[in-house]
Structure formats: C-alpha cells, structure tokens
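Side project, low priority. Logging it here so it doesn't get lost.
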Amino acid sequence: MTVQLDQPPGLGRLYAKAVATARGRRGDRLPETSIEMADVAADRDRLASYAEVCGFRHSDVLPLTYPHVLAFPLAMTLMVDPSFPFPLAGLVHVANRITQQRPLRAGERLTLRVRATDLRPHPRGRQFDMTIEATVADEPVWTEASTYLRRERPPSKPSTSNAGSPSPLVGEGRGGGLPPTAIWRVPASTGRRYAAVSGDVNPIHLNPLAARLFGFRRAIAHGMWLKARCVAALEGRLPDALTAIVEFKSPLLLPSTVAFNGRPAETGWTIVVSHAASGRPHLAGTVDRNTAAVS
C-alpha cells in the first residue's frame, strides 16, 4: 500500500507522537506501506541556510545530502505509525548510503518515496533499512538507505555490553586511524543550528539534559550533519554521479574538536572523522564514482 501525502508533516509533532506511542511496540515484521509525496522542491532560503550550517557553497545545485532533509518527515511518518514494530527511542542510526545519478537543481520537482526494508539479525539485535527514492518526471535520480539498529539482548545469554542506554538516531562502533587533513572545531550550537535548517528536532541534539537521559554527557551532533560536513569538505572534487557510504562509529559530543581525513582512493575518496585528542572515530566511509543505474 502507498500513502500519498500532500505536504510534509511537522517533525515536532511526529517526535511528540513517537514519545506518546513508544510503549508496547513489538513485532517481527516491517510495514509494507510506502509513504510518497510528489512535487517536492527545495525552499531556496532554507537551502541557503543548510549550506551555511553544513559547509557547502551557496549554489542552485542541491548538496548530495539535501534530499534526505526533504524526505525525512516521510520516514518519520512511517516510523511513528502504529504498524511500525520498534519505538523510535530504541533505534540507532549505524550507516547511511546515498547514490546520486546526476546533480539536482533547486527548482526541480521531486517525487519522494519512503519504505522500510530488509529486517535482519545483527549481533546486538536487529537492523533494517529506511530507503528513500527520488525521481524527476519518472527518472530515477537519487536513492538513500539509512540503516537502523534496534539493540536487544540475546535471549539465550545475558548481554556483556557496557555501551549504555539505547539512544535515538545516533551512531555507534569504532574505526579510523589515518592522519588528519583538517581539524574542525564543532561548536555547541551545531545541533540547534542543524535542527533549525533540517527540521530534525530530536532533543538529544538540542539539550544536554535530554541527552543525559540517553547516557550522553552533552548534546550530540546529528549523524547526517556530520556526513554532510564531510561531503562539503570535498566539494568541487566529486563527480556528478557518485555513491557516498558512511558508518556512524560513535556519537560526537558538542562542543568537540575533531580530525577530518579525506584521502584520494582508486575510485574516489576515503573519509574518516575522529576525536582530535583521543583518536576515537565518529565516522568512516567512502565517496566513489558511480555509473550504475539506481536500483
């Protein structure tokens, strides 16, 4: 079944619904529903603010990561629906893959379609992909798969993890280790500024008190802000058709000073962001040329 929306719902209302309906969500199947919205275009003022917050140049071309902002309310609509098996506060954003077939202009009208797919086991629970497909006049132009982990204790033995409480929409894991090519100072206002331009008002990014409820000492940066900041650092050196894949390794506490590493590779770039002092990785991935058709 496909649900057609005429306009994007407010994310603040969706987060409130997620809190109100969190109890009792259990299940073994993802909903077969797709959420679709047609005739979506970027607001140029909001696009300019997004570019400023994430480090992109001001341009009529959409940043690679910008369609995520346009489609995120649709994904949230699906995740807070009663048919969705997991509460939002139990989800960990562990990876993100974006494929772009060509540059998108700000004035182009997109049709966005969101689905939840591929529920599968994970050593620490279960994971699934929230997929987004963007078309222009029926032409596939952009796709995304955000992988979310629902952390659960194995039924046969007690958990030995000391990772703390599950947190909504943040990454985990370890990796990294290359010398930095840049040092970024990420101010405490980053979460609030990105929320203002993206609409993603998850309180763990805005308020240190809310972040502490989920085991963090301070508010944390949005994972998709960090990916966007990495892509912006490579702006002008990327092909028109590309695939950018990242894993979110650990939360980036605000404020922080981080080391960015962007290195040319055989088919594109490798990227790593880590804590400047400790070397603990926050993000690792690749940005590669892509000539394959969007699946």
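Brief comment: The CA atoms of residues 25 and 86 lie 5 Å apart.
Revisit when time allows.
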